[in-house]
């Protein structure tokens, strides 16, 4: 499994014949300096944790370019289908698992909010914010989306046993470095921990150093934008 960090909370995961894009905020992302079209050309699935524009991002353009399948909440899938009738979507809700060939995606809680500011000026309700767990190659990768810490993370760990955690640490809009480290240490047994949602904008924590110093379980990989990691 190859993990490519595209900046902010956007990740590209290559696993077997599946190429999965999480929260594809690329256009306007100050941490993404690559060629968007080349980066997404082979994408088979787009996974969106919630509707905020810095996560929904280029979803519709990417679906049009690639024919990929969107996996997200019913509300966001419904909105996409209303503006792009040929979109392939798999709407699901918290507690569900979608089996998609060699991969599966499970949807779990997140504590945040979710709406999309559409190009036509409408505010689109995005349903509940979520975390998404990708299972492939005998591994489980948990993208937490944007969230606070919460006690049911222990249940998520018990049910899904994620090996890889993608953890927001930026504070202000999500948990900050100290709370994120506490959540990792208390609730999970990750082998690999990847911080995200920091350093992109001025209101966010600018460094992952404090988080990395406090994580005592698992190997913290502070990925530079456009770097990749094999797990």
Summarize the structure.
The chain is of the alpha/beta class and 231 residues long. The protein has helices at 36-40, 53-56, 59-66, 74-83, 153-160, 177-187, 209-214, and strands at residues 2-5, 11-15, 18-22, 45-47, 69-72, 88-91, 97-100, 103-109, 115-117, 123-125, 130-136, 139-143, 164-168, 192-196, 219-220, 228-230. It has a single domain (2-224), classed as Metallo-beta-lactamase, Chain A (4-Layer Sandwich), CATH 3.60.15.10.
Helices and strands in order:
Blueprint: E1 2-5, E2 11-15, E3 18-22, H1 36-40, E4 45-47, H2 53-56, H3 59-66, E5 69-72, H4 74-83, E6 88-91, E7 97-100, E8 103-109, E9 115-117, E10 123-125, E11 130-136, E12 139-143, H5 153-160, E13 164-168, H6 177-187, E14 192-196, H7 209-214, E15 219-220, E16 228-230
Parallel strand pairs: 3-4, 4-5, 5-6, 12-13, 13-14, 14-15
Antiparallel strand pairs: 1-2, 1-16, 2-3, 7-8, 8-11, 9-10, 11-12
Domain Metallo-beta-lactamase: 7-197
Protein name: UPF0173 metal-dependent hydrolase IC608_12135
Keywords: Hydrolase
